[in-house]
């Protein structure tokens, strides 16, 4: 500051001297212009380099104690452990229930941050972190009363594109991992493709696939993965393609490229990622009995204890034991279809004759009971009383599109196809739906 003032003064003196020597109007105005320019340059310099010093205020650091909720923890227990009075615990619980509709802590999921204004002051704020997208903040007001507010963290959903190829000796799962598809997305893709794919015989080296899925960001940082938006797999029987679509009434489903429901009444492969060890055939040599007889189902290799999901929604019509099947469950899905699951080590709790089950609900666990050489699931589909090949039988789609939704779907599909072809060229671009 002092130095620049000195420069200004010096400049003024030089300017005065020069004026006396030249003494004509033209030169004078030119001099003034130069002088003004110099002043301006100095002023800009001062503005750029001068920083006023800020008053120093010492803010004591906030003290945070973050705990993870374990099984057996209740709100009252964790608050009492931190020295809260019964009255405080009571009023916090009341305000949580009233203003945030919050009643239960979830073990292994929720975290609580206890905040003190400084280390030697009592806790004045409690933040319950309810998964990555929800928070409840509880503040102690001046009068010692507690207030709370629910905070939803804004989700910035972008789409990600990954493509891959099956290599020699690959499973779809391995190829998917190599393509960089996250495990949770891959599990969803399996669930979807299981309606159409035979993961053993439909998977060959040289086949290509891609997945378009959601990635959720908060403050420009990736937090988690979302839903599958589209998936395509070059199966032997042709391209299997599926799109996620929200219908006019808000209901969501997956549809093939022509708008037919991709979710079938039954799954061809109930257990995801299980290898087929024996296919359906009219005649085969029985591994235990030694003579040739029909194999009326498909065998999937899986470890003992692997949950067996129901291939479709229905009602349990048989649950029992016989010499061939060992422990088995039979489900009737509608007037046409039944499925049977054999060699179970045990049944799922609550699954009895007459129980209604949802698609994907665990009905039992893989084992090796009955005539079996090792732990596996023997799976049968029975259509109108006849055993059919689960891998090739034409299965009805549930949730087909009506004439109102079909054109909307075709529009949506065109948009997704355009995104896919653009992301194929540049997978790193930021795309939001
Ligand atoms: Zn079998």
Total beta strand runs = 23
Shape: extended
Largest sheet: 8 strands, antiparallel
Rg on CA atoms, Å: 35 Å
Named CATH architecture of the largest domain: Roll
Number of domains: 4
Bound molecules: zinc ion
Q: Helix segment count?
A: 7
H-E order: HHEHHEEEEEHHEEEEEEEEEEEEEEEEEH
The residue ranges in which pLDDT falls below 50 over 5 or more consecutive positions are 1-5
* Main structural class: alpha+beta
Q: How far apart, in Å, are the first and last alpha carbons?
A: 55 Å
Please report the first level of CATH classification, the CATH class of the largest domain: Alpha Beta
Mean pLDDT: 87
Strand content: 25-35%
Range of helix content: 10-25%
Write a structural description.
The chain is α+β, with helices and mostly antiparallel strands and 433 residues long. It has four domains: 2-49; 63-152, Nuclear Transport Factor 2, Chain: A; 158-263 and 401-433, Roll (Nuclear Transport Factor 2, Chain: A), CATH 3.10.450; 275-388, Glucose Permease (Domain IIA) (Distorted Sandwich). It is 25% helix and 33% strand. It has seven helices and 23 strands. The protein has helices spanning 2-22, 25-49, 75-81, 86-100, 172-178, 183-193, 405-425, and strands at residues 63-68, 110-116, 125-130, 134-140, 146-152, 156-165, 208-218, 221-235, 238-246, 252-255, 275-278, 281-285, 292-295, 298-301, 307-309, 314-322, 326-332, 337-344, 346-347, 356-357, 362-365, 376-383, 386-388. The strands form five sheets. Strands 11, 14, 16, 17, 18, 20, 22 and 23 form an eight-stranded antiparallel sheet that branches. A hairpin with a 5-residue loop joins strand 4 and strand 5. The longest helix has 25 residues, at 25-49. Residues 1-5 have low confidence and may be disordered. The structure holds zinc ion (ZN). Zinc ion binds next to loops.
